[in-house]
Amino acid sequence: MTVTGAAPAGFANDDLEPVADDPRRERDRRRVQLALAYRLFGALRWGELGDGHITARDPLAPDHFWMLAHGVSFDAARTADIVLVAPDGTVDGDPRLVNRAGYHIHRPLHDARPDVVAAAHTHTAWGTPFSAERRLIEPVTQEATIFFEDHALFDDEEVQILGLDGGRRIAAALGPRRAVVLANHGLLTVGSSVADAVAHFVIMERVAEAVLKAPGARPIGAEAARTARDALNRPGNGWRTFRWLARRHLGVDPLDAAELVGPATTA
Ligand SMILES: [Zn+2]
Hints:
Elements: H1 23-43, E1 53-57, E2 65-68, E3 82-85, E4 91-92, H2 100-112, E5 118-122, H3 127-131, E6 151-154, H4 164-174, E7 179-182, E8 186-191, H5 194-213, H6 222-232, H7 237-250, H8 258-261
Parallel strand pairs: 6-7
Antiparallel strand pairs: 1-2, 1-5, 2-3, 3-4, 5-8, 7-8
Helix pairs in contact: 1-7, 2-4, 5-7
Zinc ion is lined by residues 51, 121, 123, 185-186.
């Protein structure tokens, strides 16, 4: 495992995500983390209608990504249910299929952002109604500053993404940022790992809730918002948040996730 960056002594909240040096081991690790991430969405009662998708780029074939097989309830996701999606949308080595809209949205995102390992999207109680306001998030809370000058609005009426062209336009709106509000649809986040993308999705949903609950909120000033954003965006913040979420909602540390969702073994 490789961990980059130095953590100052005496603080417990600077641990970084362990990434495998060997791409086969990293593939296995991503599959396990992805199954855990779907379980987390399920625990939060997201994806009850089959809506939403989380994907992870394959480290061995970077033009392929992993996602949950269609029909598996998020709360029951296991590593064996995470399937490999080829560039044309077919599933490698598994007779099961995947969510069509998920392919339409995520394929162009992974193509456009080689720095992105994972992307997360589903329809949520606050993020989706916020998206109907068709605007950016103002920095009205401490957590909201994480997205200050680092998210976009896909202001488009294609709310059911019918093809890869819709996904390409979402990717263009996202640009180099960490998140995009899909107008009249919901939130979407990307990250340097499954944990990073999913943790920031959960944070963004909390931010959308705060924005809608405080319509008279006065935003934090731009300079203070940038200072807070840069402090909160320390390396590993998404990983640490994901660990908190998994422990709280699933009773497992992501380091031990295979105990819950089953191991992965690359052939
Ligand atoms: Zn959607």
